[in-house]
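Case study 2.
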Amino acid sequence: MRVFGRFLYALIAVGFFLLSFTYSRDLMLTKYLNDVFGTSLVDENSDLPKFYYFYSSIPDYYKSDPIIAIENNGYDIYGYEVARANIDANNNLVITESVYLIVYSSTEDLSQVDYLYLENQTNNATQEISLQRFKTLNLINGINDEGRVYLAKDLFLDDNYNTINLVNKDGELLVSTNFGISDSDFTIKTFIETFYTQNNRLPEVSDFESLTNNNIFPNKPHIADDYAYIFYIAMGIYFTLLILSTYLIFFKKRRKDIY
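Prediction:
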């Protein structure tokens, strides 16, 4: 029984560690983003484009010009071209083209948004896109079947969709507006293939300083080092409580048994 009790205690301790770790990291990121963007999340006083800190962190390459830019009825729907590139085991260049989709509102509660769907009003073809809130912010991303933010390029092109619709949890249309993108809007793959043919390697950060790249850049992870104190405080509290509870449960009781 004593062994089981210790095992259960260790399991609970690990659970609280993971909870503290995840919560403190999320809190650190949320404070970082809120301080960067203020209340708007788009940093309107900055020279950087809207949502820069979001799409520019997506591996491996991104284009800063959105291929979808809709502002309708208090909602912003933006889509950015992103691409992942690697060299496979046969030394072939493999590039996966995707869309990073953002839904944002400075006035509406996005927790009431359910999903987004594309529609071809000519043949009535539709494509539903699931949405997921970004941490604790009032911003949501489109996600694929694996729960990741990489929406396949072909998802937007296969049926010549011409309408984009945003639906709330009551099934009501929040946004229904025309849009259109074509294969020619996706330019990252051609850029990377050309560079690889000429240099026999993938472009690196230093290469973009001298290249004419049509607003194509390598991803840039944004590090919130100035907010690391939040993580350290949370971990400090956790380990203090862990040491104290371990002493009270095991060692103090043992000392009483001795006396």
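The helical segments are 2-37, 52-55, 153-157, 188-199, 228-258.
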